[in-house]
Amino acid sequence: MTWRAIAGSVAGTSHHKRGVPGQDFSLLDLVGHEGEILIAVAADGAGSATHGEQGAILVCRQLLHYARWWAKWHDNRLEMLDTHVVARWLAWTRRELEIESYQLGVGLRALACTVLGIVADATRAVCFQIGDGAIVLQTATRPLHVVFWPKVGEYANMTCFLTDAAFDHNQQIAVIEDEPVEVALLTDGLQRLALQFAAQSVHAPFFTPMFERLAAEPQGRALTLQQQLLSFLDSPSVNERTDDDKTLILATRSTRLTIRNLPIDP
Q1: What is the DSSP string of 149-212?
Q2: What pTM does this model have?
Q3: Residues with Cβ < 8 Å from 13, sequence gap 6 or more?
Q4: What CATH number does domain 4-252 carry, 3.30.390.10, 3.40.630.30, 3.60.40.10, 3.40.50.2000?
Q5: Who's near 195: CB < 8 A, 6+ residues apart?
Q6: Which residue, 3, 55, 78, 164, has most beta carbons within 10 Å?
Q7: Cα–Cα distances in Å, from 73 out to 32, 78, 107, 123, 246?
């Protein structure tokens, strides 16, 4: 059984009011002989970074490239993918940000962004994160849970970024030796809707209808749901609870019962 997956990003209402573009970006791919390997990455440019959107785009493209390369040269087998390999991907990507900042004539901090990513097949998942946002995972032996709790900085509304000098200290990487069933990646614009901060847990009603609807699609990229996902992310019920950029990536290997429509009331 291979993956069904979808991804979308929309600019927050605060960006619309200021007349500036969103700073979220995400990429999704299904690779292997029958799309059995899920690769998903998302990045959120820092609000104070003048080139945050460019940083987020570069980061997602580089990390997707490294993951694709790894899968190709290891015969689409993830057994050898470990924390050390992913740490090198992050270090190489940061180096690309340094090169980009030099070419743009700006400081590295101008490209600051957070990072979320997962590479998963039918037997294991490798997750990595720098900063806030969340990777939500359900496996064969564990219900929906947050892999890394969103990391905040010294002050409120602050977090850490790949451009930080201490990025290697702040990075979180985990190899999960359990069958992944459902996966979600979300940037911090959706945290208050998707997570329960008091209990540091997942708000399951946010995800369950969407996973159920996604499970009804043919295996592969669920392109027929793309507009529904974007409409949901930019809906009044979501925007009245968050004015930030919003990215959501969903992937499932489940075949459970389905509902009719993707948009839900969070």
Answers
A1: PPP--SSTT----TTSTTHHHH-EEEEE-S-EEEEEEE-GGGHHHHEETTTTEE-HHHHHHHHH
A2: 0.93
A3: 239, 243
A4: 3.60.40.10
A5: 134, 146, 150, 201, 202, 203
A6: 55
A7: 11, 11, 35, 19, 34
